[in-house]
Amino acid sequence: MLRSVRDVVGYGLSATDGEIGEIADLLVDDADLKVRYLVIDTGRWLPGRQVILSAAWISSVEPAKRTVVMNIDTKRIKEAPAYDPGAVIDRGYESRLHDHYRFPYYWI
């Protein structure tokens, strides 16, 4: 079943060991319109901070519960490279992000 982006924004997001916030936005690759990253508002867990996580790292989605589960623990998310919504996401940032989480690059 297909869902509108408007429906997905606001889904809760959980790591392997706890809740971390909710989906605030999706980042789409302008070359092929694939959703590459989820922008996560960490809310009360890390107030005033947003992180991005690759859509490829999703472990499961529970539409009835409006929840996405990531295959990453909270410690690694907390220590992730900072995300600045006003900055351009370039290949250097993506490399640091993927290296931090120890997941392969999607562009290779």
Mean pLDDT: 94
Question: Roughly how many Å apart are the termini?
Answer: 29 Å
Instruction: Give me the number of helical elements.
Output: 3
Order of strands in the sheet with most strands: 4-3-2-1-6-5
Describe the sheet with the most strands: 6 strands, mixed
Structural class: alpha+beta
Q: Which spans have pLDDT < 50 for at least 5 consecutive residues?
A: none
Description:
The protein is built from three helices and six strands, in the order αββββββαα. Strands 4-3-2-1-6-5 form a six-stranded mixed beta sheet, with no helix packed on it. It is α+β, with helices and mostly antiparallel strands and 108 residues long. The mean pLDDT is 94. The chain has helices at 5-8, 74-78, 91-101; strands at residues 12-15, 18-28, 35-41, 50-54, 58-62, 67-70.
What does the secondary structure layout of this molecule look like, with pairings?
Elements: H1 5-8, E1 12-15, E2 18-28, E3 35-41, E4 50-54, E5 58-62, E6 67-70, H2 74-78, H3 91-101
Parallel strand pairs: 1-6
Antiparallel strand pairs: 1-2, 2-3, 3-4, 5-6
